Amino acid sequence: MNTASVPPLHDIDLKHWRLFKAVVECGGLSAAEEATGMGISAISRQLSDLESRFGSQLCHRGRSGFQLTEEGQVAYTAVLRLLDSIDEFRDTLASSKAEVKGDLSLWLIDHCAFTPSNPIATALQHFRRDYPLVNLSIGVAPPDAVERAVAEKKAGVGVTICKSDLPSLSYQVIGSEASALYCGRDHEAFGKSAAEARRIVEQTAHYVRRGYLVQDTAPASFLQNANTLAHHVEGTVQLLLSGGFVGIVPDHIAQPWVDRGALFRLPLQEFIVERPVFAIVREPQGSSRTAGLMLEAIVRSFREAAA
Q1: What is the value of pTM for the model shown?
Q2: In the chain, where the domains are located
Q3: What average pLDDT does range 223-236 have in this prediction?
Q4: Which of 41, 49, 242, 298 is deepest in the core (most CB within 10 A)?
Q5: Residue 240's pLDDT is what?
C-alpha cells in the first residue's frame, strides 16, 4: 500500500476501521454480527467500501474462511496504534476537565466468579458508578487467550491465571484459584477412598488435558497417555459428567455439580493446586488511563473481598 495513494482520514473511515478491527478479532464476518450489531451483508459492504477507498484488499472472505492479506495484517496493526492514540488523546483532554472518557475492553477467564462475593462484579459496579462516560466492553476467553489479548492490544485489562512473563505486560496478583481432580457420578472412582481412587486413576483413568493452559501441571504419566483435550473449563466439566474421564477443575466451578451429586472431588493431595489469579495490563507506557483505573477498581475489590 503506497502511502502517497492513501486518502485523508475522515470520521467515516474511523467507523470503517473500527468495524474492520472487530471483524479481525471475531475471526470473520459471521462471527462479527453479534459484536457489531450489523448484518453480514452490511459488514461485507462496508469492508468493500474501505478496501475500495484505500486501494488494497485487506482480507480474503468467502467459503474458504476469513484470512487477512499481508496488507490487511499491516493495516490491523496500524489500526490498533491509531485507536490507542485516539484513546490517549481523549484521556489527555478528559484529564484537563477532570473527566474520564474513551473505550476500554476488559477480558476475563471463563467462570471468574471466584468467591460468593464476586469481586469482579463489584469492581464493574464501582467503575461504572465512578466513570459513566467510558465505553466498556467485556470479553470472555481461555486463560492464555486473555493474556494474548492484552499483549496484542485487543484488551486493555485482563483477569487470568496464565502468566507467561511477557515483557510488554505488567502482572499483579489479586487472588487465588484452588483446583482438584474430579470425576463424574458414573466413573469407577466416584466416592472411593484415597487408596482405591489412586489405584483406579493410575490404572484406568482417562485424563482430560487442559489446552487452555500454557503448561498443564498434571503428573507426566497422565499427560503422556492423555488423548483428550479441552480448550475451555466447560469442556472439561462436560467430559467429566459423561462418566468416562477424570480432570482438574477449579473448586468453585465444580462445587455446584458436587452439591448435586454429579461430580466427586477425588481425595488425592498431589492434584490439589492453588494458582494465583492475575490482573494484567500493558506496561505503564503502553497502558491507557482507563485501563489503569479499571485495574485499581479490580485490585481494590479483591482486597475488600479477602478482608
Answers
A1: 0.66
A2: 11-96, 102-175+276-306, 177-275
A3: 80
A4: 298
A5: 95
pLDDT at residue 218, rounded to an integer: 67
Q: What percent of the chain has pLDDT over 70?
A: 86
Q: Which three cell numbers stand for residue 49?
A: 467500501
CATH of span 177-275: 3.40.190.290
CATH fold match for the domains 11-96 and 177-275: no
Q: Give the CATH architecture of domain 11-96.
A: Orthogonal Bundle (1.10)
Q: What is the pLDDT, as a whole number, of residue 243?
A: 93
pLDDT at 255 (0 to 100) = 92
Maximum average pLDDT range among 78-92, 175-189, 195-209, 215-229:
175-189
What is the distance between the alpha carbons of residues 163 and 216, in angstroms, rounded to a whole number?
A: 13
Indicate the angle between helix axes 70-96 and 11-26, nearest 10 degrees.
Answer: 120
Residue-wise pLDDT for 101-124, tens only, equals: 888 999 998 777 666 678 999 999
Written as one string, the DSSP assignment of the chain is --GGGPPPP-HHHHHHHHHHHHHHHHTSHHHHHHHHT--HHHHHHHHHHHHHHHTS--EE-STT--EE-HHHHHHHHHHHHHHHHHHHHHHHHHHHTT---EEEEEEEESS---STT-HHHHHHHHHHHH-TTEEEEEEEE-HHHHHHHHHTTS-SEEEES-----TTEEEEEEEEEEEEEEEETTSTTTT--HHHHHHHHHHH--BEEETTSSS--S-HHHHHH--EEESSHHHHHHHHHTTS-EEEEEHHHHHHHHHTTSEEE---GGG-EEEEEEEEEE-GGG--HHHHHHHHHHHHHHHHHH-
Question: Which residues lie across from 159 on neighbouring strands?
Answer: 108, 279
Question: Average pLDDT in the 84-99 region?
Answer: 69
